[in-house]
Amino acid sequence: MRKLSTTFLSLATAGLLTTSALAQTTVSFSDNVPSQGNLVIGVFENGDLGSFGQTIDSNSNGALSHAIKAADFKAGEMSTKVIPAPMGSGYDQIMLVGLGAKGEEKSDLQWQKIGGDAAQDAVKAFKQAPSMVYDVSANATANLAYGAKLGIYYFDKYYTKESRQKSQENITIISNNDDDAKSHFDAELDPVANAIWHARDVSNEPANVIYPESFVERWTEKFAGMDNITIKVIDEKEMLEMNMGAIYGVGRGSKRPPRIMIVEYNGGNSGDNPVAIVGKGITFDTGGISIKGSNNMWNMKFDMSGAASAIGTIYALAGRGAKVNAVGVAALAENMPGGNAQRPGDVVNTMSGKTVQIRSTDAEGRLVLADGIHYTDVTYDPPLLVNLATLTGSASRALGDDYAALFSRHDELADKLLDMGKETGDELWHLPLNKNHFKAIENNVADIMNSGPSAPGASAGAAFIGAFVREETNWAHLDIAGVAYSDKAMPTKASPGSRSFGIRLLNGYIKKHYEN
User: Which of 61, 220, 268, 327 has the fewest Cβ atoms nearer than 10 Å?
Assistant: First the structure.
């Protein structure tokens, strides 16, 4: 196993697109309202403009409040409207943002959605994000800023026409409590937003840019200079030495060899076992010999979304200096139908000692996870083990893009994850996993088979992964096939593509239940 320093030689190959990432939007806070240009102002349902808005209104002899009434703006939560600025105010246009009823308690997630939606509408209206004025609490201000940074993300890296480019260099939030809001944002929220940006970037890249080796390179560059980080990599030769025939078999058909990336973050007490997150990292999935149809195959670049979110969660924890030990594991392979590819009917060994008959080479995600999750379980003996995977169409068809499917042997863990999903917006739905599902994957040639049981597909996939996790381990499987990416805009995601599902969920869960 190779242990990497935070300097890593570039793997860029002549003829390939650059692996450099998008420049991230930065958020600044101020208590100084600009005197010209466009402006965004938060308004409550009772017409309360806040102290900044009231000053503008007073300076315009009530013209601002009159314009709001004339526009019939009710200020309902997450509503927006652009109005002409009052004559002589110095502004061009003002976008009003509805904050709902003043004094009504709102969750952090509600403020985040308001902030993200407002930022997106401001960019649509003005082609850039002008200063955004909110007269609310420091916590609310910080969450508005967090939502704005998430919502304003747009993957326009490969647009050559400037008119199509939507990336924003910075956002300015105007507030009376700018110092307190900035402190909270910088310490707790911005590190998570940065992790989500990085995970989205990696997932949105085409497969000729992100493949197992360059996935390792990209994240290694991101972790450079961060405290308490150790990165290790298992290559294909070591996989064979460790009897990891499942992940090796998936990757052997590609010229891009498989990798397991392990990122350890030690921010907790010395000797405490780390919480562990394992992600499926199929950087492109053709289906292998069991090749997919051509329709929408381009979307298979997102089949590594679980791995991106697993490593992204560790980045979020390290970025905010979380008082916990954690490890993220990315099981990486490219599933191609090459001359050396495994075939349906092949039998492979796994690190656990179990044998697997390959019924479909297109059921490859559970194979890479079989070795990745077993390695993680027996190496780290984690108090919490969660895996994320774009595993089955069954989960996507059952739950659409509203929920990820949650499977677990441990009801208490499942209940707590469900609650955190509602709190963070990464929502889950608990689906069944029982002894019949484990029975269904038994095989008449090998110990188990990777496809073809009579059990429901999503539950059978969960049972396959669970077969490589010790029963006493506090484990949950998240099937994110329906929520990993979306072309639909959301308040905290404007761009078509990756949703980086799971980072907010797991960051919040670990913070609440495992940090010292």
Answer: 61
Shared domain for 375 and 271, answered yes or no, is yes
Residue type, 262: I
Tell me: the pLDDT tens digits for 209-246?
Answer: 999 999 999 999 999 999 999 999 999 999 999 999 99
pLDDT at 394 over 90: yes
Q: Determine the pLDDT at residue 336.
A: 98
Residue 146: enclosing H or E segment and its boundaries?
helix 138-151
Query: What average pLDDT does the segment 121-141 reach?
Result: 94
Domain boundary among 123, 149, 177: 177
Per-residue model confidence as pLDDT tens digits over 319-335 = 999 999 999 999 999 99
- 203 and 265 belong to one structural domain: yes
- The beta strand positions in 353-496, using DSSP E, are 355-357, 385-389, 404-408, 428-430, 448-449, 475-479, 485-486
Beta carbons of 44 and 101 less than 8 angstroms apart: yes
69 is catalytic: no
Catalytic option among 232, 292, 354, 416: 292
Is 436 inside a domain boundary?
yes
Residue 356 CA: distances (Å) to CA of 103, 317, 333, 501: 59, 35, 18, 30
Active site residue 435: no
Confidence band for 169, pLDDT divided at 50, 70 and 90 = confident
Q: How far apart are CA 306 and CA 331, in angstroms?
A: 9
Nearest of 137, 315, 160, 148 to residue 225 by alpha carbon: 315
Catalytic one among 366, 409, 504, 511?
366
| CA 410 – CA 418 distance, rounded (Å) | 12
Query: Which amino acid is residue 65, in one-letter code?
Result: S
Establish if 341 belongs to a structural domain: no
CA dist., res. 75 & res. 365, Å (int) = 47
Q: Tell me the pLDDT band of 11, cut-offs 50, 70 and 90.
A: very low
- Among 329, 330, 366, 375, which residue's Cα sits nearest to residue 348? 366
